[in-house]
Amino acid sequence: MRTRWIIALLLLIPLSDALLLVPVAGELGYLATVALVVLTGLVGMMLVRAEGRTTLARIQQRLAIGELPANQLLDGGLLIAAGAFLLTPGLVTDTIGFLLAVPVTRYPIRTVIKRYVVKPYLDKRADGFVSGGVWAGGFPYPDDDDDVYDVDSNSYRYDDDTDADRSN
């Protein structure tokens, strides 16, 4: 079911690009539209390159102090996706690429991805230990059982009859 939505989305993006480029080309002219698409792609790639360097430096800083750079690795993945969208000609893909490349919009997107993609995946793989949705309070059975006796260490005495028999 999910595969159908992904395929539909991948087909919808180029379709929306084509449907948007036609009225923009009619308004601005064909050469100006091509120049706009090329210019947004070039500016976007320069932005992705600069953000990629910053993200790589943050990854190295986190690793140098012995911390896991999870957020920075997600940022790196989002920057790779931004680069792919910016290389694809079209105004819709350039807009998506800019949204993924600019830190102001990338950080909320990263938070949403962590909440709805990464955390459920890790919970599924670790049986709930990532989010704490695991039973950790003992056995999940009611305490109605009358065969259970609580005994502390002072009230329990163990006599070994075999030692007494050996000494006689």
From TrEMBL:
The chain crosses the membrane at residues 28-48. InterPro entries: FxsA. The keyword Transcription regulation does not apply. It comes from the Archaea. Keywords: Membrane, Transmembrane, Transmembrane helix. One of its GO terms (cellular component) is membrane. Signal peptide: none annotated. It holds the Pfam family FxsA. Residues 142-168 are annotated as: Disordered. This is FsxA.
